[in-house]
Amino acid sequence: MRVGIVGATGYGGAELLRILHSHPNFEIVAIYTSSQQGRNIHYHYPHLTGIIPSTLEEIDPIKMAKNTDVVFLAVPTGVASQLAPELLSAGCVVIDLTGDFRLKNTEDYEYWYKRKAAPREWIEKAVYSLPELNKASIKGSKLISNPGCYPTATLLGLAPLVKAKILKEGSVIIDAKSGVSGAGQTVSLGNIYSELNENLKIYKVNQHQHIPEIEQMLQELGYDSPITFQTHLVPMTRGIMSTIYGTVEGSMSEDELWKLYNDFYVDKPFVRVRDIGIFPSTKEVAASNFCDIGISFDDRTGRITIVSVIDNLMKGAAGQAVQNANLLFGFEETAGLNFSPVYP
Ligand SMILES: NC(=O)C1=CN([C@@H]2O[C@H](COP(=O)(O)OP(=O)(O)OC[C@H]3O[C@@H](n4cnc5c(N)ncnc54)[C@H](OP(=O)(O)O)[C@@H]3O)[C@@H](O)[C@H]2O)C=CC1
Ligand SMILES: CC(=O)N[C@@H](CCC(=O)OP(=O)(O)O)C(=O)O
Fold this sequence. Notes:
Number of strands: 14
Bound molecules: NADPH dihydro-nicotinamide-adenine-dinucleotide phosphate, ligand 2
Number of helices: 11
Radius of gyration: 20 Å
Protein name: N-acetyl-gamma-glutamyl-phosphate reductase
Pfam families: Semialdhyde_dh, Semialdhyde_dhC_1
GO cellular component, one term: cytoplasm
Subcellular location: Cytoplasm
């Protein structure tokens, strides 16, 4: 199956190249750029020399529809809202990694992202797909909206409790941390070495654009209250740790808790639940599509602590996009993604 990647020169794009060049069912036939037409990807990414012999092409929807079966959009949020409708109208199937089609309510998008929302007709057609939590099959969809990195870690951490209806409404607090590649390749003052090194920063306090995305999905799963969600920048390249606190109705043994999570994720190849008392670290999922979860119940406070880790560029972006493409076209869910994390 023929694949095109827009934004191949970015971090998410680079991960798509890494995964897809050895995928058994997809072949990268074209990579697109808005700024480096005609150049070889090796000029931008020397680490790909000799592996992916590709010249960057200009974005031309009609040509793209003719030459590809599916197009991944790894472009800045705000670009996909314009580009995806053009590609879809030309006949492309699109897997979008941006935030542009995730929120069903356009007013929410405009409030949280501070920019104009995508056309409503396309938002309605877009299927938000976090595969472990999807109710229906995504087969036949033309526009897949890939979840955000923080929502992926957080929702996978919370879903078993929410579905079991044992969380007290209003009790959920999420304290999340990310490596700097989460901000992409664009340079900003906050991302340079001297600002980041030996530093820990909270940012977008009560303003993070992933709050409505998490709440939208929690509502679908059966939890209706607003959440408290804070994000921190950690001096590391990859990884997200979402530490989640919630109060349970009544009491629960840790064994029951463990069984609840294990049963929920028993047939989900990318979610690994640690034994009670063991908590995952970001390195344990680095460069892989796994989401690892650790859980604990404090019977003094009645609070559960859940620790959920992912690689932001993999399960948080490119890995999950390929997982979605596998499901969309009926391939093995794990095809091209069945490798272990890089450790240490
Ligand atoms: N980084 C992460 O951990 C995650 C990222 N995402 C989302 O994935 C998307 C890509 O992120 P990431 O790879 O980190 O970002 P980067 O900033 O690293 O890369 C974005 C790429 O988009 C291309 N681009 C810029 N402007 C345009 C334009 N006007 N039209 C077409 N292409 C354009 C650029 O390539 P060129 O100049 O060659 O066109 C650039 O390399 C974003 O929407 C992000 O929010 C989602 C989850 C996690
Ligand atoms: C570390 C860091 O800055 N992370 C980014 C993640 C953004 C992202 O992936 O945003 P979309 O919703 O646009 O896809 C942030 O917190 O905004």
